[in-house]
Write a structure and sequence with these properties.
This protein is an all-alpha fold and 571 residues long. It folds into 2 domains: 1-50 and 381-519, MetI-like (MetI-like fold, Orthogonal Bundle); 69-332, MetI-like (MetI-like fold, Orthogonal Bundle). 73% of the residues lie in helices and 1% in strands. It has helices at residues 2-21, 24-52, 61-68, 70-103, 109-121, 124-135, 140-148, 161-185, 189-197, 202-213, 215-230, 234-239, 248-257, 261-284, 306-333, 349-357, 359-392, 396-405, 413-424, 435-459, 464-471, 476-484, 489-505, 508-513, 521-527, 535-559, and strands at residues 53-54, 57-58. Strand 1 and strand 2 form a beta hairpin. It is globular. The termini are far apart.
């Protein structure tokens, strides 16, 4: 009887599985796959098409033009300098801070967490604005020096490749801090104690054992810093482009202004290939890490270095965090940037104007909120289907769909925007100039972010619940939304919040795709300085964006129980 029951159950499951495979399951999978192909693959294919096809014929003149142009090699050279400079600054800074926080007896280690977290929440473009307000002639550094030395000649320019390296390093070092900190916690204290027993000094133990054990983490996070740097547009456009220096992202932007679409396509492919290659290498490189099986951590005593560490951290966080924040805050209350910091020149009218009076900024807030809610929610639903099929079917086509959906994670936002422009500028799907082209591109950007948040939770779910529900005849949609979704809800929710925050500060996609009436907060941040508003209005908007970012990231940290969120935050 037991065998009969087992055979009948197997027959029932096979029968219903075949039935579902030709009904709801196939239709939902087909719909999900079509959406992913249309919003992710189709624009990228269009970039390739524009680069090699002209007047219906295949030609490679665009590639020849780009690789013969000296501007391309200058942009590549500057991009390499930028990447190497950011790596050389952000990786040591993040590693040293993580070591002090996690491997020493430093008394105020929680304060380091809070300060780094706030640094992580500040958009890179906002940091570049603070840099200009601090360093430029008439800025706060110039004023302080003039008070000390009234006759001083001030000729420091805020615009340079070095400035971009400094600002991007301050923006990206938190990623290194979070990753290395997590790696240091996994190191067993046995090896370090053994080193001391054998007569090893602190210096030899740190350099010979502790740091080498986090090499895998350093290499992995180095690849991430590389891709984030090469993809950046906001900082380099603000600090490098004004002096005529170009990197790959700004070179593409300049080619767009020249309406040379073939060159735009070729440069986009070049940037995409570099980013994809680095992303693939980072995924393929495998290292064996030593796990902390006894859950004990060896802490190094700072001893006589404690005062020096306190001074070093005070100086660093003053430069990286407090000065930029105070600069933006003071500027946001000035009637006009450059006026003396006195009560008669302070006002709340900047906030009143931004939030309640300016029709453009009110529309930008409304657009960003609507685009964010709609796009993030759509991305969550699509991601839910992708993860379900990969988890419960795990067929070749399910794995392929999952891999394709992750493509935007390795691509610069400016490339996604260019692909959308080429794909949706002509009939029958003429979306360029409408809000829908921004929304569709946001969805493509958001899907891999939600996948990254929720896929870990999905991998830990047992298949037995879904199998039991399938045996009882529960419809597929109900199984997905009632049984599967609650089990990965925290990942979906944290991904949704991150995506919504991106919509409030994203620049490259919005800047290339907006038209009058579809402005976003990111567009306003970028454009407001070129209008008659001034830096005080830019600072006001920047402060509001920082507040939203901090609140949103605090919510995410609570949802994921304090784990750091190192996802792709766009500029």
């Amino acid at each position: 009887m037991k065998n009969n029951l087992k055979n009948n159950t197997v027959k029932f499951l096979n029968k219903n599985s075949r039935k579902l495979s030709y009904s709801n399951s196939s239709l939902i999978f087909l719909f999900t796959a079509l959406v992913v192909l249309i919003i992710i693959v189709f624009p990228l294919v269009y970039i390739i098409k524009i680069s090699v096809i002209k007047d219906g014929r295949i030609f490679f003149d665009g590639y020849i033009e780009v690789f013969k142009d000296v501007k391309t090699y200058r942009a590549l050279k500057n991009t390499v300098i930028l990447v190497l400079g950011v790596l050389a600054m952000s990786v040591p800074i993040g590693t040293i801070l993580a070591f002090i926080r996690n491997k020493t007896d430093y008394k105020y280690n929680k304060a380091i967490d809070y300060f780094v977290f706030i640094n992580f929440c500040i958009p890179s473009y906002v940091l570049s604005v603070a840099w200009i307000e601090c360093i430029s002639r008439g800025g706060f550094l110039h004023r302080i020096l003039k008070m000390i030395l009234p006759t001083i000649k001030y000729d420091i320019s805020p615009y340079s490749l070095t400035a971009a390296i400094i600002v991007l390093s301050i923006h990206l070092y938190p990623l290194v801090y979070f990753a290395v900190g997590s790696g240091l916690k996994q190191i067993s204290d046995i090896l370090e104690k053994t080193s001391f027993l054998l007569g090893g000094s602190k210096r030899k133990t740190i350099l010979g054992i502790t740091i080498p054990l986090v090499y895998p983490t350093l290499i992995s996070i180095g690849f991430l810093v590389f891709t984030r740097t090469i993809a950046n547009f906001g900082v380099v456009s603000n600090l490098v482009l004004p002096i005529g220096t170009e990197v790959l992202t700004t070179r593409i932007f300049q080619a767009i202004s020249e309406l040379n679409l073939t060159v735009v396509a070729v440069l986009s492919i070049l940037l995409m290939v570099i980013s994809l290659a680095v992303f693939k290498i980072s995924k393929r490189v495998k290292y064996k890490e030593i796990e902390n099986t006894n859950n004990t951590i060896y802490y190094y005593a700072l001893g006589k270095y404690r005062i020096g560490v306190n001074i070093m951290l005070s100086i660093f966080f003053s430069i990286a965090l407090f000065i930029p924040l105070v600069t933006l805050l003071i500027s946001s209350f000035l009637k006009r940037w450059g006026l003396p910091i006195e009560m008669e020149y302070l006002t709340l009218n900047n906030y009143k104007y931004i939030l309640f009076e300016s029709e453009v900024t009110k529309r930008a807030f409304a657009n960003s909120i609507f685009f964010g809610i709609f796009s993030a929610t759509s991305a969550v639903i699509i991601t839910l289907f992708i993860l379900y099929f990969k988890k419960h079917n795990n067929r070749l086509k399910d794995k392929l769909l999952f891999s394709i959906s992750n493509l935007p994670l390795s691509m610069p936002n400016i490339v996604l925007a260019i692909g959308a422009t080429f794909a949706w500028i002509n009939p029958p799907f003429k979306l360029y100039g409408t809000k829908w082209i921004i929304i569709i591109t946001y969805i493509a950007l958001f899907i891999p972010i939600v996948l990254k948040h929720a896929s870990g939770l999905s991998s830990n779910i047992s298949l037995s619940i879904d199998d039991s529900a399938k045996t009882l005849g529960v419809p597929l949609i109900k199984r997905i939304f009632v049984l599967y979704m609650p089990q990965i809800f925290s990942g979906l929710l944290s991904g949704w919040i991150i995506c919504f925050l991106i919509s409030l500060r994203e620049i490259p996609i919005s800047l290339l795709l907006y038209r009058k009436g579809t402005e976003t907060i990111g567009v306003m941040l970028f454009m407001i300085q070129s209008n008659s508003y001034g830096l005080e209005t830019t600072s006001t908007l920047a402060v509001i964006v920082i507040i939203f970012s901090v609140i949103g990231n605090v919510l995410v940290k609570k949802i994921v129980k304090g784990n750091s969120v190192n996802e792709r935050i766009s500029d």
